[in-house]
Amino acid sequence: MSDSADDSDLIRKKLRWTDGMAMTLGIITTGIFTSIGYTIGAVGLWGMLLIWAGAALIGLLQVVLYSEMALMFPDKTGGIGMYAHEAWRKYFAPIGPLCVYGYWMAWSLALSAVGLTLGELVAAQWFPDSGTFFTLGSVHVGVPHFVAAGCIILVWLVNVLGIKLTVRLMWVLNSGAVVTLLIFIFAPIVAGQWSTSSFTMQFGGDWGGVKLAIGLLYVAGWNVYSTEIIATFSPEFEDTRRDVPKAAISSGIMLLVAFTLAPIGAAGTVGQADVSKNPVSYAIDAFEKIVGPASGLVTVIICASMFASMAASTGDAGRALYGLAREGMTLKQLDHVSKRNGMPVRQMTIDLVINLLMVFFLGSTIAVLFASNFGYLLCTTFAVAGFVLLRKDRPDWPRPLKLRTFWVGIACGIVVIDAVVTIVGFLNPKITGYGNADSIVIALVLLSFGPITFVIRKKLQDRQPLNLREDAPAVPGADDYTMSAPQPGLAPEV
């Protein structure tokens, strides 16, 4: 662990469990508005439900597992990547930096991808004839790029000003999206405008369509598992013991319900064919059919929701880098938070610069997103497996929330599913048109920076031997754990 102990005291405990839900709302609604339509076009509405609702259920089970681990390490920033590090360090220490770096990559690089999608929506709605302003290499820079850059800078600024301001803004930005989703779910049924007659399920290709389903789940992974973001912020909740499980489980349930009911309502209103033809603007078509012309309003709502998801991504990615450095797994300069408000400003500034460069100089973000999805799912797999290892290796470690023994079996089943999705999806980038053979190489190169910076930190900065296996304490010491053991009645088994 880093010697800069004073910085950890700067983390402010300002969040309530409802604030955790605010962080996930934008990510959930962004997935519904911008990603689900493509899956419906590929495999039909029922096929989409099988993939997204099924994965959302797995995501809900995962956040229950993460809740136990979050309360085991209540003062550690870094979320699920940090739990993977704690569990695997005694077996192979480089797994920790690999997982946390892959996790950071997924949340950080989402900024440029979501920002460009937001920019394309703005350009299509209000500047359809704007065209190209100038060319940088192979990138034809236009309105979408400047909108994306402006949003990336704004979400950085909002996060720098403090977590409470960020959360309040998320509630405001997501309120319209929540109302829209409720309209999608209930209004068509009440008005009699809803029908399932157009719904189909159409899997094809290798393994009787199973490979296609796995590929689509690989692409959807970041969206459907995203409620784990709450674990990264766990040291900042006012009452970590109560707030983290409530926020994580409530968000997981909300995600499952939203990914199940909202697409059924919208597709049942406009028909599956319309969703397939207009995988993003279908939300506008559905809203107009229910309440009348409102394309501009719905575009604003979608863009606001996407901006909120970018704000959450910035905060999460910055904290992941800080947690990585705090545990001595990456450059020492990143073990720092603002003395004014405890925010990881240096780390978020790195995200800002990287994503601005991607917006203006990278012709396509697809290969990078393919790599970041691989890193994210790899981290998820090791983190869930870490739950099992921590139960085996640290049975006496205080657990303010202790799940019943059958959850170990559930974790083992999820590890198998996540591992299959990660491996098959990574080795078959062409399944969904999400990449090619070059994408695999790019993914491995990008992920290699995690272990490389780990070696730099250990050998050059800390002047320590590079141990591939580290001692892991069986019980916490004063520096590892500050939350008292659970009192009777406060930590029931679940």
Q: Your description of this structure?
A:
With 494 residues, this protein is an all-alpha fold. The chain has a single domain, classed as Up-down Bundle (Amino acid/polyamine transporter I), CATH 1.20.1740.10. 68% of the residues lie in helices and 2% in strands. It has 16 helices and two strands. The chain has helices at 17-34, 36-72, 80-88, 95-126, 143-161, 163-191, 210-224, 229-232, 240-270, 272-277, 282-291, 295-326, 345-361, 366-393, 406-427, 437-461, and strands at residues 132-136, 139-142. It has a two-stranded antiparallel sheet. Strand 1 and strand 2 (139-142) form a beta hairpin. Mean pLDDT is 87; it is low at 1-7 and 481-492.
Give the arrangement of secondary structure elements.
Layout: H1 17-34, H2 36-72, H3 80-88, H4 95-126, E1 132-136, E2 139-142, H5 143-161, H6 163-191, H7 210-224, H8 229-232, H9 240-270, H10 272-277, H11 282-291, H12 295-326, H13 345-361, H14 366-393, H15 406-427, H16 437-461
Antiparallel strand pairs: 1-2
Helix pairs in contact: 1-6, 1-9, 1-12, 2-7, 2-9, 2-15, 3-4, 3-14, 4-5, 4-12, 4-13, 4-14, 4-16, 5-12, 5-13, 6-9, 6-12, 7-14, 7-15, 9-11, 12-13, 14-15, 14-16
SS element count, helices: 16
The fourth-level CATH homologous superfamily is Amino acid/polyamine transporter I
What count of domains describes the coordinates? 1
> Residue ranges: pLDDT <50 for 5 or more in a row?
1-7, 481-492
Order of strands, main sheet, comes to: 1-2
Question: What's the CATH topology name?
Answer: Amino acid/polyamine transporter I
Shape: globular
**Structural class, please?**
mainly alpha
Our measurement of the CA-to-CA distance between the termini, rounded to an integer number of angstroms, reads 32 Å
Tell me the CATH architecture. Up-down Bundle
